[in-house]
Amino acid sequence: MKAMRAKTGGFILAAIFALLTANGVRATERYVSPDGTNDVNGGYTNWEGAATTIQAAIDASSPDDVVWVTNNTVYSSGCTNYAVGSNRVAITKAITVRSLDDDFASTIIQGNWDPATTNGGTAVRCVYMAAGSTLIGFTLTNGATATGASVYDGGGIYGANTTAIVSNCLIVGNA
After folding, report:
1. E strand or H helix at 141, and its extent?
2. CB-based contacts of 18: which residues, under 8 Å, 6+ apart?
3. Which of the residues 37, 97, 126, 152 could staple to 145 if both were Cys, CB 3.0 to 4.6 A apart?
4. What is the pLDDT of residues 152-166, one digit of tens each?
5. CA angle 98-147-173, nearest 5°?
């Protein structure tokens, strides 16, 4: 099953690459690993110089880029306030963020519950997604949001637009 998933994912990537290069656009691949050297000047374009946070690689990206995130890691630090409250990761551009093997069991984005009320002032959502963004192969867990207006919905994930795509993700234990 895993091999079949990898082949399918490879085919999809090859098709996307072919479409982009046919139109003269080439996406940049960026990398995230806690073992990377966080090479800002290098743009996180190889595993050695990988960003140490998902957000750093997203911030360095341009539309259509792909951010690869190493497996066997829990991302539970770093937080950004973007649009609708605090988020562990804010995908603010039309890019793809994906785990290395598209395996949600091995790469986790963990939000944070407000200790007093679950949803409240110190809550952190797992992922915010802008229009045209894609998230593939993660577990999103323990996310929550501030209380108040409906824009604070989605403790696990908040898609700002119906064109955001979530694929092969497990969204569990969020408020």
Report:
1. strand 139-141
2. none
3. 152
4. 678 999 887 779 999
5. 45
The per-residue pLDDT for range 8-64, each reduced to its tens digit, is 455 554 545 444 444 556 799 999 999 999 999 999 999 999 999 999 999 999 999
CB 94 within 8 A of CB 66: no
Rounded Cα gap, residues 95 and 109, in angstroms: 17
The pairing of strands 170-172 and 96-99 is unpaired
As a whole number of angstroms, the distance between CA 33 and CA 40 comes to 13
Q: Residue 47 burial by CB count (10 A; 0-12/13-18/19+): exposed, middle or buried?
A: middle
Count of helix runs (H) and strand runs (E) in the chain: 2, 13
